[in-house]
Write a structure and sequence with these properties.
Elements: E1 4-10, E2 19-26, E3 34-43, H1 46-53, E4 76-77, E5 81-89, E6 101-104, E7 107-108, E8 120-121, E9 133-137, E10 141-143, H2 151-155, H3 158-170, E11 178-181, H4 187-198, E12 202-207, H5 212-217, E13 222-225, H6 231-238, E14 243-248, H7 254-258, E15 262-270, H8 283-287, E16 292-295, H9 301-313, E17 320-324, H10 329-338, E18 344-348, E19 358-362
Parallel strand pairs: 11-12, 11-14, 12-13, 14-15, 15-16, 17-18
Antiparallel strand pairs: 1-2, 1-4, 3-5, 3-9, 3-18, 5-6, 6-10, 7-8, 17-19
Length: 366
């Protein structure tokens, strides 16, 4: 095997000029209890953009240039969404893992506990999947043999569906409850709609007019337009006794607008701030009504194992908005930042560098 590969290498925090396409990057070699994965598909997330830009801030300075856990050690290969095939084994790995089709858990954990959140992330604290090969701990790959999902669809799952699973579990969303989802056409938003409706929740989704039908097809019982002046009034009309919970990936002014629509003892779980990271709302709505405000950054090992089970069973239906070759990752990140469509931006490793970009929404076969 060639000891060099093509990789998209982040050289520092900043603009797209900090992202270099290299064809001479060393192929990673698996260490003890690790496997090497030949990446067949990866996907783009907000985490990739914000990490490159250093847009996470710090506890004492919201404007500090930082990754989500601090400055990133560069050079770094980004990409937390990885599907592929096990191509080499490190010492201590069972030989029957070689050649398996796998989905990679991008979380880096402090220990083997099933219910602890990650303390790092592939593509941030360790190299990720925007490359031909990646090495990961063997217990981070989940066998997808027999899954009806394509590799592109599998690559849509780890960050978006993992984050959504963590949000729904931490907010204790149950069958029969009424849940409002903000940003419902994004990767995490669509995942929330699908997973919550599969749990039996009645989903009220907030999105744009252009994406309303896609969100409805994903399982939303009600779709409200985010730009409506009377959004809170529409929510109250649908839930006169109050919402049971809100799953928020947007942040910004909607927190102040919609928190009064929660019932007493309601839950608000948040995992994003694309509409504004510093917000103002009336604290009386929080404490007088015993509202629980929950921060949720990612999944746990247990969450991801449940997600892998669902992927093998084919009960998920990720939507793909566009696909790019690895050598056009710059264009993929621009498209992600500019897209108004519903679905994920996918990097297909089998696409030639001069292939035309295909833009469409795939519902898949599941």
């Amino acid at each position: 095997m060639n000891d060099l590969m093509t990789a998209a290498v982040l050289t520092g925090h900043g603009g797209l000029d900090k992202l270099e396409i290299r064809r001479d990057w060393p192929v990673p070699v698996p260490g003890p209890h690790q496997v090497q994965v030949r990446v067949t598909a990866a996907a783009v997330n907000n985490t990739d953009i914000w990490t490159r830009e250093g847009a996470y801030g710090s506890p004492d300075d919201p404007n500090a240039v930082s990754g989500w856990l601090g400055p990133i050690d560069c050079p770094r290969i980004q990409g937390g969404d990885i599907a592929g095939v096990v191509s080499a084994l490190g010492p201590g790995v069972p030989p029957d893992m070689l050649g398996r089709r796998v989905l990679v858990d991008p979380g880096l954990y402090r220990d083997s506990s099933a219910d602890k959140p990650p303390v790092g992330f592939l593509g941030s604290e360790a190299d990720g999947g925007f490359a031909e090969f990646v090495t990961v701990d063997a217990d981070h790959v989940h066998d997808m043999t027999g899954s009806p999902l394509t590799d592109e669809q599998l690559a849509c799952l780890p960050v978006a569906y993992g984050t959504a699973t963590g949000m729904l579990d931490r907010a204790r969303v149950r069958s029969g409850e009424r849940l409002l989802v903000t940003g419902a056409s994004g990767g995490v938003g669509l995942a929330l709609v699908q997973l919550a409706s599969a749990r039996g929740a009645e989903v009220v989704a907030v999105t744009s007019a252009a994406n309303a039908e896609a969100v409805r097809e994903s399982g939303a019982a009600h779709v409200l337009l985010r730009d409506a002046e009377d959004l809170a009034a529409q929510v109250r009309a649908l839930a006169p006794d109050g919402l049971d919970a809100v799953a928020d990936v947007v942040g910004g002014p909607l927190i102040g607008t919609l928190m009064p629509t929660l019932r007493d003892d309601g839950r608000w779980v948040i995992a994003g701030a694309v509409a504004g990271r510093v917000v103002e709302f009336d604290l009386r709505r929080l404490y007088l009504h015993n509202i629980t405000l929950i921060g949720s950054s990612m999944h746990t090992r247990a969450h991801f194992a449940a997600l892998a089970d669902a992927a093998r069973a084919g009960v998920l239906a990720p939507r793909i908005a566009a696909r790019f070759p690895l050598t056009r990752l710059h264009d993929a990140q621009r498209a992600f930042a500019e897209t108004r469509g519903a679905g994920k931006i996918v990097i297909n490793m089998n696409e030639p560098s001069d292939a035309p970009v295909e833009r469409r929404a795939d519902q898949g076969t599941c």
